[in-house]
Amino acid sequence: xxxxxxxxxxxxxxxxxxxxxxKCIPLNTKSLTIAKQRLVEIKKLEYEIxxxxxxxxxxxxxxxxKNTLSAMVSLFLKSQENLIQRSTLQRYKDALNELIRxxxxxxxxxxxxxxxxxxxxxxxxxAERVNPKSGKIETRFTPTTVNILLRxxxxxxxxxxxxxxxxxxPFRIKLLKIDKSHPKFMTDEDVKRFMAVADKRPNARDxxxxxxxxxxxxxxxxxxxxxxxxxxxxxxxxxxRQDRIIPIDPGLVDLYKRVRxxxxxxxxxxHKFKHFAREAGLSDDYTFHSLRHTFAVRHWIExxxxxxxxxxxxxxxxxxxxxxTKIPIDYLKNVISIRxxxx
Length: 343
Description:
Elements: E1 3-7, E2 10-16, E3 22-26, H1 32-50, H2 69-80, H3 86-103, H4 116-125, E4 128-130, E5 137-139, H5 143-162, H6 188-198, H7 202-214, E6 224-226, E7 232-235, E8 244-247, H8 253-262, H9 266-279, H10 289-303, H11 306-313, H12 318-321, H13 329-335
Antiparallel strand pairs: 1-2, 2-3, 4-5, 6-7, 7-8
Helix pairs in contact: 2-3, 3-4, 3-5, 6-9, 7-8, 7-10, 10-11
């Protein structure tokens, strides 16, 4: 039976050849994971030699194919499918598509060097697109989007090291420094104007009301269920990979059930939010996530307990939640009412 042998930090495949003598094939890798994958082919070769349908390979045909960037990206994404949320997987895909765009799909993974970091940053920061409305050429990515892409690329290289496809990350990926700003929450007046426009699409409007009053992330609605007490929801497959239980106003339960059974896609809801916000004359800074920020601010004003707000939001650390405490409470009380939250 074929097996692996390591010598001078490289792996070799050992098998019995046509003359029943032990043969050695260099696998040209330091990675045990890669060596095990290549050993499968050697075991197959050994079996075919034994039954007489194959011959010992020539020395110049034993060099394995390089692990190209596109092949390794596909392997990485496949390995993550059941480990992370679909939205996170999509962000990884977007990030690694940019990595392939900049360096080419055939670049061997182990050929990245420290100086490639500068090429990566230039490729992201100087990327351009044509504005579909004005026809003008503009910068494709904001600094925030660049950081999202960099996080995905960093995760890919970390995975490659963990799985021993490469010995270490070729360069350190540093995120851009961005001035911290307050979370983009909606005032009562903003919500009123937004809902007035959303009334033209009752299904979407009802979904917005549920998100606004529960603080769920966009992807969490379809992973939620009503608990028997009729006053709480259980959310599974969360961003933090832990179930969490959140309260829901009993007066919204029927609406919640109807919205959940409608199965509106996250893309549809995100698109409609931006469309309605623009039509209502609201700031372009608002995104669907602003509904969650608005819930968080309301919860903070009402309870003034940062740990409780953290628990309801499902944050990994109270440090994340503390961003809401940086907004002057007197200002919040002037623009947000904690009562009549159903709109």
